[in-house]
Amino acid sequence: MSSNEVVVVTWGRGGEAFAGEVDDILTLGRGVAAATGGALNWLTLGPVSDTIRQTAGTYGVANIDHIEDAKLAEFSADATVAALAQYCEQHSPRVVLIAQGFDVRLVAPRLAAKVRAGVVMNAAAVEVDGGGKLSVTASAYGGDTRAVYEIAGERACVVSVLANAVLPEAADAATTPAVRDFAVDLAAVDERIQVLEKPKAEGPRLDAAEIIVSGGRGLGDAANYKLIEELAEALGGLPGASRPIVDDGWVDSSHQVGLTGTITRPGLYLAAGISGASQHMAGCSAAKTIVAINTDSDASIFRYARFGVIGDCLEILPELIRAAKS
Amino acid sequence: MRIVVCVKEVLDPDAVNNYALAGRLEIGDDGKSLTQAAIPRLMNGFDEQALEAALRIKDTGVECSITVVSAGPAPGDILKHAAALGADEVASIEVDPAALDAHVIASLLAGYIRTTGGADLVLCGRQASDDDQGVVPALVGEMLDLPIVTIARAVESGDGGWRVTRVTPDGDEVVAVTGGAVVTISNELGDPRYPTAASKIKARRVKPTVVAVSDLGLSADDSEPRVAFTKQFVPTIQGNCEFISGDSPAELADRLIARLREDSVI
Ligand SMILES: Cc1cc2nc3c(=O)[nH]c(=O)nc-3n(C[C@H](O)[C@H](O)[C@H](O)COP(=O)(O)OP(=O)(O)OC[C@H]3O[C@@H](n4cnc5c(N)ncnc54)[C@H](O)[C@@H]3O)c2cc1C
Fold first, then answer.
1. What is the ipTM of this complex?
2. Whether residues A34 and A122 fall in one domain
3. Residues of A in contact with B148 (CB under 8 A)
4. Rounded-to-integer distance, Cα A108 and Cα A115, Å
5. Which of A64, A23, A21, A66 lies closest to A47 in space, CA to CA?
6. Mean pLDDT over each residue of chain A, to the nearest integer
């Protein structure tokens, strides 16, 4: 049995980093809570900053639930899942909303298994009908289709939500959320996965870039990827790539944009020699402005692009580098 | 040592993409299945790479047997393909997937592993290319109480467990687990091998072990779906592309940059 509460869960990156990253999911949560008739709460694993308080108030959050524990100081899947499961057992939320990310792909289904809830990833919408029936619309086939899942009976559901699934919208009336501390007992949790080598994060991350210039198979040859790097640099952005050129070893996989690469949301996404397959667009369609350069005027990428250039990217990229520098 | 690889049969995602690009992707009368009967069915790409990861472990000289198991409709050629690639045993849990969800599928796979002697390593693809959900491996891990390592590009045996290289947004991470584990494989593992002509011919005679659901010792809760897949539709994309015109690459570039500056995009 679950209550009709809706909880948005965030963790692990201090207070400030949440600004602007939770607005969409809180907006979604408020709508779902209105439909279930329950409260919208925000559970955060980590300190409650002023930004969190302010953001929560703006989006109509009733309570900020707060868990802090030494075992959660650095991300540990076992500790995170245990803490969330203890919270869910006590509060029995009907819907748990988490913004999809690398660790969430693991945490969401594990949490669902622990609390015997349903789980849906890649969610774009959550609906509650008049009878209280909950359904989640998720992207499938890389984005070629949308699948709708109905949650059985009164069961709870853990929903991992895609970035930009909803447009942020402040609540009509701001709230002053109460902060409630929730004590967890993680004494029995002993992380089973031992990290031998940490990732060596080099430079800024693609998912935080304001400008991304990406290349695909249309570049023809690995050596031509330097045109992508040069244009990215000239525009003050980062270079990205489609999956085939990562699979072929032209560039490192940290550059891959898409369903199974990085999900980006830059101001400008320039795609050269990329066809615009749904699995690629899953990682960049949230960009404010997409520019496409492609020899094929029927290429799918032009359906998503704001500006299009029909032509050979090997001829146009050098000219763009020149023009961007001028 | 026993390695179990879980595989799913899917519609060829490239063919689905081509239908989608041509605007010809259609949903049937049931409101949820794709109608294109001509689309070939094959082993989910990431699952094939999970099998490849198992074969690479065997290649290094680790004494192990590889079992490939699939829960779903009567499997077509995917289990024969697995046998041709070098699986020691292939097993099929025949169920109607339309009535099941990830929880029940995971219960079946976990039940199979539990009742057939367990596994030192369970390998799965990171997600299926049809529903893109990627939750079954984590559910199986929870049911078997095994640690779950996601999105790996390499798995090696070592120190009484496994050493796994994960592909994270910050670069590669190397982790170790002691004892058994569930590991999900990503495309960064690299291309899977092809079966030889001889192994293909041999595999034609391979009969999968057919597993009866009633033998898996599932509880009522194990068999109770949490969610029901009720509908599928093709989203519409509203294009509004402004094509830049020009007589030369230089002119096209100048006009595009000017246009982006005008809109304060750069
Ligand atoms: C489960 C799954 C997950 C996937 N995940 C991802 C993912 O995360 N990211 C991803 O990118 N893909 C992913 N894919 C692959 C995806 O389906 C496409 O195959 C891929 O995005 C195509 O890459 P591309 O556009 O570079 O190549 P192509 O589709 O081959 O397109 C090349 C384009 O370049 C154009 N071109 C050729 N020459 C020139 C030239 N000289 N100048 C300008 N244009 C030129 C062509 O007209 C064509 O449009 C995934 C696929 C599956 C099945």
1. 0.96
2. yes
3. 77, 106, 110
4. 11
5. A66
6. 94
